[in-house]
Parvulin-like PPIase (Gluconacetobacter azotocaptans), 272 residues
Amino acid sequence: MMPPRDDARDMGGPAWRDAVPFLAFLVIGGCCFLLYWVLEGCRETIDIPRSVQWTLFDDYATLSGHEPDEKERRTVLDGYVADEILFRESLRRRLYLADGNIRQRMIDQVRFMVGGSPPDPTEAQMRAYYAAHPNLYRGEPEISFRHVFFRTAPQDPVSILMALRQGQEVKGDDFWMGHDLPAYGQSMISSMFGLDFLHALQAAPAGTWTGPIRSSRGFHFVRVEARTPATQAPYDKVRDAIRADMISEERDAAIAAEVARLRRDFDVAVER
């Protein structure tokens, strides 16, 4: 009868001892390969195509007045590499999230890429758009008026108003736009004198002097000469605006569709 096998003793035999260095070599080699793979996997490549190099060298020649030699070319390329490294580092640190201007420029760039350049609308399409959107191309109401201007509050406003209504000439202060303001649009009046002045002018009776009305510039006695209601602008006068509006709408629609498609990949959490 054979004695029982001693596995522990057999594993410690010469064959096993001879295999240990080989196994250790495999383990160490595998670790080295893994470390190399990890380190190399973290490295990035900065490609500098010939077209970029030519642009960089041309810019250098324009600024310096001579073609760069070999040393200057290396300096130019080193500068490009430094800028690219810092740019990628800024992306890694997500600095665009902290700088509103950079963030907006990136958004605008994507909008431009997505919106593209829609084709020009046809003449028939523009005329149909003009007919369907009359309020977009309607001129604003206009007011023609005269005024006597005072930089500071007049001493005797009642006497001045009575004199003006009696047809007498009253000398006020000089006004940079003159004293007769014909056919001024409401937005222009508001920007020049303020919204309160515009409202008072709209309520003033036509053909008679009234005031003083205070504005952002001073005090005015005014006489409304005429009011012109808003009118539809002729097609030929607003044709370019119609074309721009239609192209803008087409671009906005393309951007909205792309945002809707991308939004499916996002969950939105609004803090309450």
The CA atoms of residues 38 and 236 lie 67 Å apart. The radius of gyration is 40 Å.
